[in-house]
Design goal:
Length: 415
């Protein structure tokens, strides 16, 4: 009897106890071991109490539940890993087949790919990721190209700065600046005045004001480099206005050194009214020739958003003479508005002042707006314009084509 108990204990220690200690069930097995040891005694000695019966079913349940939990924990991870590996294999097969598959995919993207309900949904998701990856590559390539261009531009700027720093070029630029400044200073004493009306700030947006100031800056630079510059006046100019701030942004420290006259007074308070002529495209009177004794006024505004007739109404309210450039007289107008930018007006007025030639002056009008210069009288020009309008309407096309080719056999062809 004692030897049998010893043998049973050895079997339990050698087989069950190591497994229980490995899986954390040692405490639960001690009462079970006691029930197993008592079972042999119960077979021989039937005087034991009925409460100490062998409970093998409970022992089996405990052992099976512990093993199932451990196995489920160990098996769940390999299942997920195997499914991810299978998804990667399918992606590699689709990539080899030439389908739109991204090169790199994260685990989250693979999981969303596996969760797609159908094959078409998986294809669409992969195509979306592929296009997203292509966009990222293109953006990176563009950024690299911009960086390379920026570096090349910096190298070129450094080279040009080195060439500019040569003594001859520096001496030449300084002497030319002195010459331009001397001419501008002379124009302030002896030059013909040219007025920029700065009273249109309220009629424009901030962007339009900045565009107007840029055009005036270009006008001032071209006037400064001309042979006989104007004496520029900024009238109705308010300190700390939007015009003022934009001029300081463009000129910076050179704003206080400009050889121009800046005043908050109106031009009618500075010059006599009989000498003032307001240049506006809405004027019914056409300018025939440039008058060196007159003082021309140009409205400092952008004509895109401002309503027509604003400058004309202002000139009439002040009782001033108005004039418009003879664009219809010298140009065969095709498309576009007849309003010109301020720098174009400055070039035209400087050319008229120096040469008195309208053809040379009107070469500064953008060529996209007119076909060619008119070499015939205004009556024939009106006829051609009427013919063009009838052609656009499509009335009597053959008759009009014959008449048009008769008047202009070589220069113009109708399509």
């Amino acid at each position: 009897m004692h030897s049998a108990n010893m043998l049973l204990r050895r079997i339990v220690r050698s087989s069950v106890l190591p497994f229980a200690t490995q899986h954390g069930m040692k405490k639960d097995l001690f009462p079970l071991r006691r029930t197993l040891s008592l079972s042999l005694c119960l077979k021989q000695d039937k005087s034991c109490e009925p409460s100490e019966k062998l409970d093998l079913d409970e022992w089996k349940k405990v052992m099976k539940s512990g093993l199932q939990e451990e196995v489920s924990e160990m098996v769940s991870e390999p299942k997920e890993l195997s499914s991810l590996a299978a998804a990667r294999e399918t992606l590699e097969m689709w990539r080899l087949a030439g389908r739109a598959v991204p090169e790199n995919m994260s685990e989250e993207q693979l999981k969303t790919f596996m969760e797609c309900p159908s094959k078409s949904a998986k294809k669409k998701y992969l195509k979306y990721l592929h296009l997203k990856e292509l966009h990222k590559k293109n953006d990176k390539r563009k950024m690299d190209e911009r960086r390379e261009r920026r570096l090349e531009a910096q190298d070129q700027d450094s080279k040009t700065e080195e060439t500019k720093k040569t003594p001859f070029v520096c001496l030449w630029s300084r002497t030319m600046d002195k010459a331009y400044n001397w001419r501008a200073a002379q124009s302030m004493i002896f030059g013909q005045p040219l007025v920029f009306d700065m009273s249109y700030e309220k009629d424009m947006s901030v962007r339009e004001v900045s565009n107007t100031v840029r055009q005036i800056v270009m006008s001032e630079s071209s006037n400064r480099r001309s042979v006989d510059p104007f004496h520029i006046h900024f009238c109705n100019f308010k300190d700390d206005s939007l015009y003022h701030r934009e001029f300081i942004k463009n000129y910076r420290e050179a704003w206080d050194k400009l050889l121009i006259t800046v005043t908050d007074q109106c031009y009618t308070e500075i010059f006599p009214k009989e000498k003032l002529i307001y240049l506006t495209a809405d004027s019914p009177k056409v300018m025939k020739a440039f008058d060196h004794d007159k003082i021309y006024i140009v409205g400092s505004m952008v004509d895109k958003s401002i309503k027509r007739g604003v400058s004309l109404a202002r000139a009439k309210r002040l009782g001033l003479e108005t004039a418009a450039l003879p664009l219809d007289k010298y140009l065969l107008w095709s498309t576009g508005a007849k309003n010109l930018t301020l720098d174009q007006m400055m070039h035209i007025l400087l050319t008229l002042k120096d040469t008195a030639d309208w053809k040379k002056a009107l070469e500064f009008v953008p060529k996209r707006k007119y076909c060619d210069f008119v070499n015939k009288p205004v009556k024939e020009l009106k006829k051609t314009l009427d013919l063009i309008s009838t052609l656009k309407l499509g009335k009597g096309r053959e008759k009009v084509e014959k008449q048009f080719t008769k008047n202009y056999p070589k220069r113009y062809k109708l399509k």
